[in-house]
TrEMBL record:
The gene is atpI. One of its GO terms (molecular function) is ATPase binding. It comes from Haloferax mediterranei (strain ATCC 33500 / DSM 1411 / JCM 8866 / NBRC 14739 / NCIMB 2177 / R-4) (Halobacterium mediterranei). It holds the Pfam family V_ATPase_I. Component of the A-type ATP synthase that produces ATP from ADP in the presence of a proton gradient across the membrane. One of its GO terms (cellular component) is vacuolar proton-transporting V-type ATPase complex. This is A-type ATP synthase subunit I. It is a multi-pass membrane protein.
């Protein structure tokens, strides 16, 4: 799980006469991640980049046609039915007939849509004249009058016309927003005298339509024309829809068939070829090599030679991946000297080797980057830690059940691998939230599990762990900060150990010790010092009491001794010295082993914050009262009724009413309380994702990944096609 599948570089060599058969066989096997020929053999051996097989151009043209038809008809993958065979003759005349009919209808649709837009524009242009209420033929065609129509402020318009020296007389007719100004210009005035007079006024000119009669009649005619066009457009759309229903399944299958044909016919573009031979290289999972070689030999025979050139190790020298010797296996040719990368020095593609419940968490890793071939794949660590972080911070049975249900819906309700992965991660996070909810004894913030399980059925005085909100349990809040620090130390150690192993394999023991071992020494040395008597009373007391014999989590640890503490500081300084020998510039980060660990205290902080939000919602709805017992104060929700101060409840006296609760304030309060209860818990549920989820992701990406993870791996994309709509049988 921590390493991807091992990959082997293979070479497939044969005569050009069998190249189509080899391509067909390799395509069906779907194992070879093809390496592009880089032209490196051209001068020495005369190899050139191959040319497409006959029929490639025709297949490409038809593929473009099919995709265009799919787009026009709106055909989606969901329109597919059963898988079908697409014979060659179906891609000839039948496809051309569909293309002709669809293109004609599409052209007709475009024409009708353009006409509709034009009619709509005419209607919009006519609306102001309806407001004006003057027949259109009265607004133009005068010899001695000038007419301007538009929108503006009537007072400003009239003032501008009055002040105009070239206008002898005028009349203004107005609707609600539209004005028509009739003006008689002076003798010799310009044809634009009235328009020029209005330049300085608040006025927007409208063009008078070239029509006659009342605007209302003209709009009625336009709306009738619009209805006719819409009816014709609906008919065309209906015909296109009928074609989509009738031919959609065929088009999906034809696209897939042509896509496969293009893949096969253009495959030689990645090969090195001469006049008589070809060489194809690529990567396959090492464990599949024998299957690949034997299947190819059985299909093509002795006309093709398959050779395993190298097996990539999980380390490299910083420039190129190392090569293991390849043993003779399966009766096929093998490069026992480790071979050489013949086409290009390409890195192996990455197949993350995870399965079952771990696999969905690959999505979380790939959100940063795909691991490169030579580094550890942290997916399994995320599987172990991310749901635990999330569940610890939310820790509520009710919320956990809802998260699990949402995860199951995503996993079972969608075909997309992305949604399935999100569902798998959500299920895991929900299960941990449910588990911690049982341990905390809470369901939607109520201590009902505590009351009926831990105290009732099992006879305990309290649940195994508590969040620390109530006065009687407040020490837990500080205890969780200690736990968060310890979790951070452990988590970061895993990251540094990964880095140590990678550097050991990459550069050897010296660099591993100096570059990665230094951080391991600094991290653990500093925190041994902090968790010891060496600093006297500087560290807070709760760091030493949380795990003490009488502490919250009685593990018998109450801190390291004075001597061990100073030894820890010595380890820290030794690590700093190693780091200075390897990377002096990184000494500027000497305090990061402190700050990185303290960053994990967000686990305890979010735990308290989320618990407080749920508490606030329940307080508003049901109210909270406190009781005194043995000097300790405990709070209780008023689920049944709200007692009075001094009343005895469960053998204890009520000492204070923090809030009476909406449910105990009449009918209106019950209605408002239900609304607050539902909306409030939905908000807490949503914020669980945006706060607890994001904080958990941040710890993984920033703190953990930053210690060893680089990414940059290539996805394994074997030559072939995963058929959905077609079959060859």
């Amino acid at each position: 799980m921590l390493r991807p599948e091992q990959m082997s570089k293979v070479s497939v060599t044969g005569s050009k006469g069998v190249m189509p058969e080899v391509i067909e066989a390799v395509h069906d096997l779907r194992l070879l991640h093809v390496t592009e020929y880089d032209g490196s053999w051209q001068e020495e051996f005369g190899f050139e980049t191959g040319t497409p097989i006959e029929g490639a151009e025709s297949a490409s043209d038809k593929l473009v046609t099919v995709r265009s038809l799919k787009s026009i008809l709106g055909v989606e993958d969901s329109d597919a039915g059963r898988q079908r065979i697409v014979p060659d003759d179906a891609l000839g005349e039948p496809l051309e007939e569909i293309r002709t009919e669809v293109n004609e209808l599409d052209d007709r649709r475009s024409e009708l849509e353009n006409k509709l837009r034009a009619v709509d524009e005419e209607i919009d242009a006519m609306e102001p004249f309806v407001d004006l209420g003057i027949d259109l033929d009265l607004l133009s065609g005068y010899d001695t009058l000038q007419v301007v129509v538009g929108h503006g402020n009537r007072d400003e318009i009239e003032r501008a016309v009055v002040d105009a020296g070239e206008i002898n007389a005028y009349e203004i007719f107005s609707g609600e927003r539209t004005h028509a100004i009739f003006g008689r210009p002076t003798e010799g005035a310009s044809e634009m005298a009235l328009t020029d007079a209005l330049v300085g006024a608040e006025f927007a000119t409208l063009e008078v339509p070239d029509a006659s009669g009342s605007p209302e009649d003209h709009i009625r005619d336009l709306e009738q024309e619009k209805r006719e066009l819409e009816s014709k457009l609906e008919t065309v759309e209906s015909e296109l829809h009928d074609i989509a229903v009738e031919e959609g399944e065929f088009l999906l299958a034809a696209e897939e068939r042509l896509d496969i044909d293009v893949q096969k016919t253009e495959a030689p573009l990645s090969f090195a070829t001469t006049e008589n031979a070809f060489v194809a290289e690529g990567w396959i999972p090492t464990e599949r090599y024998n299957t690949f070689a034997s299947e190819l030999k059985s299909i093509v025979g002795e006309h093709v030679d398959v050779e395993e050139l190298e097996r990539a190790e999980f380390s490299h020298d910083g420039h190129d991946h190392a090569r293991e010797g390849v043993p003779e296996a399966g009766g096929t040719a093998a490069a026992t000297d480790g071979g050489a990368v013949t086409m290009s020095n390409d890195e192996p593609p990455v197949v993350q080797n995870n399965s079952g419940a771990v696999k969905p968490f690959e999505l979380l890793v790939q959100a940063v980057n795909r691991p490169n071939y030579y580094e550890f794949d942290p997916t399994v660590i995320l599987f172990l830690t991310f749901p635990a972080f999330f569940g610890f911070m939310i820790g509520d049975f009710g919320y956990g059940v809802i998260y699990t249900a949402i995860g199951y819906y995503l996993y079972a309700g969608f075909e997309s691998e992305t949604f399935k992965s999100m569902g798998g991660m959500t299920i895991a996070a929900g299960l941990f939230t449910t588990l911690f909810g049982i341990l905390y004894g809470e369901i939607f913030g109520f201590h009902l599990i505590t009351q009926y399980l831990w105290e009732g059925a099992l006879g305990l005085s309290h649940p195994p762990i508590e969040k620390g909100l109530s006065p009687a349990t407040s020490e837990w809040a500080l205890g969780w900060l200690t736990v968060s620090v310890v979790v951070g130390i452990f988590h970061l150690n895993v990251g540094y150990i990964f880095d140590f192993v990678e550097k050991f394999q990459l550069h050897g023991a010296k660099e591993a010790v100096l570059e990665a071992g230094s951080w391991i020494l600094m991290l653990n040395g500093l925190w041994i010092w902090v968790f010891s008597d060496a600093l006297g009373g500087v560290p807070p007391e709760f760091l030493f009491t949380t795990f003490a014999s009488g502490g919250l989590l009685p593990l018998g640890f109450s801190g390291f001794s004075y001597t061990v503490g100073w030894a820890g500081l010595g380890l820290y300084l030794l690590g700093a010295a190693f780091l200075a020998m390897a990377e002096p510039a990184e000494l500027a980060e000497f305090a990061s082993v402190l700050s990185n660990v303290l960053s994990y205290t967000r686990l305890g902080a979010v735990l308290i914050a989320k618990a407080s939000m749920a508490f606030a919602v329940n307080l508003l709805v049901f109210g909270v009262y406190t009781t005194g017992h043995g000097g300790e104060v405990e709070w209780h929700f008023g689920l049944g009724h709200m007692p009075h101060i001094g009343e005895m409840v469960h053998g204890h006296e009520v000492t204070n009413i923090l809030f009476g609760g909406l449910f105990h304030s009449g009918a209106a309060g019950v209605v408002g309380g239900l609304l607050v209860l539902v909306v409030g818990h939905l908000v807490v549920l949503a914020l669980g994702v945006t706060s607890a989820g994001l904080q958990a992701v941040r710890l993984e990406y920033v703190e953990f990944f930053g210690k060893f993870f680089e990414g940059g791996g290539r996805e394994y994309e074997p030559f072939g096609y995963d058929r959905q709509f077609t079959t060859e049988d």
